[in-house]
């Protein structure tokens, strides 16, 4: 199918787009033409403004309130990222613009952004090369597993399973299963991590890879990871790192040095970009030297003359995983984020993320049960088990936080903690905000003791009271 452009369309602010073919009207099938004009609302500017302001006020986001949603990294996204993403030179681009033919210079800046972001990620993680194509973390995992499968196929290895600890994000086992592997789940030990001993019980020659989140979803680092990696490599299996949230280790440690062979990074969590509700995202996948040849095509390369080009010549590539070059806008915001912070700034990101999470952990551990009392990384996980004795569940505490003006933390995940409340303050919050959150959590713990019924009916300050969760799931109506 041909795409329709205005002939010689003039980009905004004078960016001249090249002339492209316009299909003859006669080529468009008769049945696709409208019979009557579209029924578009006729409204004044004032009505439009009121409509969108009202919608924006119904929103609860990082730009309005504290949003400590563990594992999702809902942090402040610097507005400079939005500004750069709106530069005409980027917004007026189209992926079908010629790369190498005359006029190809139009896309050089965009290719440079992709190339340099890829280089930054390689530097930060120690990987040899990244594909910038995957459109989300889960998509990155699937891409990674496809690379793992291609590696074993090329070597003639017979591999059937992937080892994943029970604290993993649900997308890990889902990605492994979609790629055709059997998932072997390993229970976490008393320190909240996959222990070497438990791991060795399931390791054998059938293992294709081990998928580990690092630090894991309890916000804990695995001190035995190097020993585990060495054993994995002895059976020619690969170490996959789920690097969705790198806030804890940026500029501090490199997954490649720890023994990981490949990984994905969520640009929309670690490197800015507002996200939620399914997008937009970007989950670039980085690999060590031995896996480079399997990366998806196309890749952006820098030629000797300093220009950038798309490379398609990788005979062992797993092929395309996304149209064009990934979610370019997200890559651009990550690029802006990295450049605006610089190396030292990125180190501060992890220092502050870890400090803030440990501060909350220490302040709240006398009020809520802390199942794994260790120094945490970027997030900490409490259990509402103490409040349960009064009939108060994690969901009640979460709903009550709304009354105090806070977004609830992630609840009931990871699955291995009963009544889990997973708190990730991120690096971008001030001590005052974090203290106010801690105070609200302490008040709620007191309310759970004295007035548990209040918590069952929370939130009480919102226009709509507690939703019937079952009805909301079974008879979903998004129009109200
Ligand atoms: C968010 C997340 C994912 C999945 O990323 P999506 O972009 O939502 O697909 C995978 N693993 C971990 C640990 C995550 O936090």
Descriptive account of the structure:
The chain is built from 16 helices and twelve strands. The strands form three sheets. The protein has a seven-stranded mixed sheet with strand order 1-7-6-5-4-2-3, sandwiched between helices. It has a three-stranded antiparallel sheet with strand order 10-12-11, with helices on one face. The protein has a two-stranded antiparallel ribbon with strand order 8-9. It is globular, with a radius of gyration of 25 Å. The chain has 480 residues and is α/β, with parallel strands linked by helices. The longest helix has 37 residues, at 328-364. The chain folds into three domains: 1-33, no CATH class; 105-340, 3-Layer(aba) Sandwich (Aspartate Aminotransferase, domain 2); 348-474, Aspartate Aminotransferase, domain 1 (Alpha-Beta Complex). The protein has helices at residues 45-57, 79-85, 88-91, 108-125, 137-155, 171-178, 196-202, 225-234, 255-258, 267-270, 328-364, 385-388, 394-403, 431-450, 452-457, 469-474, and strands at residues 129-131, 161-165, 182-186, 207-213, 238-243, 262-265, 285-287, 299-302, 308-311, 380-383, 410-411, 420-423. Residues 71, 136-138, 169, 171, 213, 217, 242, 244-245, 266, 281, 283 line the site of pyridoxal-5'-phosphate (PLP).
Structural class: alpha/beta
Strand order of the largest sheet: 1-7-6-5-4-2-3
Largest sheet: 7 strands, mixed
**Shape estimate:** globular
Mean pLDDT: 91
Q: Bin the helical content.
A: 25-40%
Q: Could you please say which CATH topology of the largest domain applies here?
A: Aspartate Aminotransferase, domain 2
The radius of gyration is 25 Å
How many strands appear in the DSSP assignment? Answer: 12
């Amino acid at each position: 199918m041909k795409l329709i452009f205005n002939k010689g369309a003039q980009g905004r602010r004078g960016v001249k787009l090249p002339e492209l073919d316009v299909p003859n009207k006669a080529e468009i099938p008769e049945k696709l033409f409208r019979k009557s004009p579209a029924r578009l609302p006729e409204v004044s500017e004032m009505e439009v403004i009121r409509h969108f302001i009202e919608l924006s006020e119904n929103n609860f986001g990082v730009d309005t309130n504290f949003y400590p949603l563990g594992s999702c990294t809902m942090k402040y996204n610097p507005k400079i990222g939005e500004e750069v993403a709106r530069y005409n030179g980027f917004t007026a681009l189209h992926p079908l613009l010629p790369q190498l033919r005359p006029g190809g210079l139009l896309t050089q800046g965009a290719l440079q952004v992709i190339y340099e972001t890829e280089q930054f990620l390689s530097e930060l993680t120690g990987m040899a090369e990244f594909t910038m194509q995957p459109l989300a973390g889960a998509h990155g995992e699937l891409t990674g597993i496809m690379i793992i499968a291609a590696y074993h196929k090329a070597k003639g290895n017979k591999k059937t399973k992937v080892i994943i600890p029970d604290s993993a994000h649900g997308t890990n086992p889902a990605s492994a299963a979609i790629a055709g592997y059997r998932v072997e789940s390993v229970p976490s030990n008393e320190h909240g991590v996959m222990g070497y001993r438990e791991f060795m019980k399931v390791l054998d020659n059938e293992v294709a890879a081990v998928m580990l989140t690092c630090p894991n979803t309890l916000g804990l680092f695995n001190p035995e990871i190097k020993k585990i990696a060495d054993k994995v490599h002895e059976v020619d299996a690969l170490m996959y790192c789920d690097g969705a949230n790198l806030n804890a280790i940026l500029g501090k440690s490199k997954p490649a040095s720890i023994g990981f062979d490949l990984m994905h990074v969520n640009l929309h969590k670690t490197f800015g970009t507002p996200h939620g509700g399914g997008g937009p995202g970007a989950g670039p996948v980085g690999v060590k030297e031995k896996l480079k040849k399997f990366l998806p095509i196309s890749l952006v390369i820098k030629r000797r003359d300093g220009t950038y080009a798309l490379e398609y010549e990788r005979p062992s590539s797993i092929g395309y995983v996304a149209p064009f070059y990934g979610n370019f806008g997200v890559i651009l915001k990550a690029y802006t984020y990295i450049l605006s912070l610089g190396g030292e700034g990125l180190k501060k990101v992890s220092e502050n993320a870890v400090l803030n999470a440990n501060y909350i952990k220490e302040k709240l551990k006398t009020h809520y049960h802390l199942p794994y009392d260790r120094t945490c990384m970027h997030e900490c996980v409490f259990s509402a088990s103490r409040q349960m004795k009064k009939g108060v569940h994690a969901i009640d505490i979460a709903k009550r936080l709304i009354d105090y003006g806070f977004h609830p933390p992630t609840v009931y995940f990871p699955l291995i903690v009963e009544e889990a409340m997973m708190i990730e303050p991120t690096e971008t919050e001030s001590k005052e905000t974090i203290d106010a959150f801690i105070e609200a959590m302490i008040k709620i713990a007191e309310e759970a003791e004295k007035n548990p019924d209040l918590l069952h009916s929370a939130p009480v300050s919102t226009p709509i009271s507690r939703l019937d969760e079952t009805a909301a799931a079974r008879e979903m109506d998004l129009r109200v």
